[in-house]
Design brief:
Order of helices and strands: HEEHHEHEEEHHEHEEHEHEEE
Radius of gyration: 19 Å
Largest sheet: 13 strands, mixed
Distance between the termini: 42 Å
Oligomer: single chain
Length: 283
């Protein structure tokens, strides 16, 4: 693959193949050439021939979110991802898969298709161009956990999300994550995150924040590591501890009272091994 701008880890573009999971109903509404990259493989979730790939995709979700206690059941994957939305990611042929990955995925011996190493799932909302991010999965943290060094997967998650948002034609993005989630480091690469909730009892994980940003080519390029793009970021007013539930509720109260807040940059680690997230009041 070749892109017309810089990326943090160019090796990912030569090592992996882009794929797209979309129904025939949704396929006409996505851009198959985001930033000049053509998905060589489009998977139709309504066809029997897609069964093995989709099972491997579900396994990738389990490898990513199983340790956090939030893997998706298969029916949720179909009802809330494959049917209403789209899935974009990068993959590697089974014949070129690392032995540890074959074992983790439980790849069938007779399977010679693609094995997903990353995916981004998003669901369109009512307004044209507005999408909700449902799932970001990557083998990068799994490989770190298993001390696999065959290939540097640095930047795989942010590259996948950036290409996916371009592929889906997203203009306004919304998502939800937890204050302690490592994925927050990826999300802020797209620029300051506009907070809609800071404490969310409607979610099974109450310590969830809901965030959004307007999607432009500039913030997509920045997210994928193009150092020529500099996004404006306001200075933090204060830092919220990732375990400070009272602080989350207080911030939620201010949001519901009409205050506007953003997460302007990446969280920082504390000396005690915790996480603090920057907060800026913008209105």
């Amino acid at each position: 693959m070749a892109l017309s701008f810089q990326v943090r880890n160019p090796a990912l573009l030569s090592e992996f193949i882009p794929y797209l999971v979309a129904t025939p109903f949704n396929l006409p509404h996505v851009n198959l050439r985001p930033f000049g990259v053509t998905p060589a493989h489009v998977i139709d979730p309504l066809r029997l021939e897609s069964e093995t790939f989709l099972r491997l995709l579900h396994r990738l979700d389990g490898l990513t979110f199983g340790p956090e206690g939030m893997p998706m059941p298969r029916w949720v994957f179909f009802d809330c991802s494959e049917m209403p939305g789209a899935i974009y990611g990068l993959a590697r042929p089974a014949s070129q898969l690392w032995p540890v990955a074959r074992e983790l995925f439980k790849v069938p011996d007779d399977y010679d298709g693609l094995v997903p190493v990353s995916m981004y799932v998003a669901i369109p909302m009512h307004r044209t161009g507005m999408w909700f991010g449902h799932n970001l999965s990557s083998l990068a943290p799994v490989f770190r956990e298993h001390h696999v060094t065959d290939l540097d997967l640095t930047g795989l998650g942010s590259l996948t999300k950036g290409l996916a948002l371009k592929c889906f034609g997203v203009k306004q993005f919304w998502g939800a994550t937890q204050w302690m989630s490592k994925a927050l480091h990826i999300h802020v690469k797209f620029g300051p995150l506009d907070l809609q909730t800071a404490y969310t009892p409607a979610h099974s994980e109450r310590e969830t924040l809901t965030y959004g940003f307007a999607v432009t080519d500039a913030n997509l390029r920045a997210s994928m590591g193009d150092r020529s793009v500099k996004l404006p970021r306001p200075a933090p007013d204060y830092w919220l501890d990732g375990h400070d539930v009272a602080g989350m509720i207080a911030l939620q109260d201010r949001i519901e009272a009409g205050g506007r807040f953003v997460i302007p940059e990446a969280p920082r680690s504390t000396s005690a091994g915790g996480v603090e997230v920057p907060i800026t009041c913008v209105g």
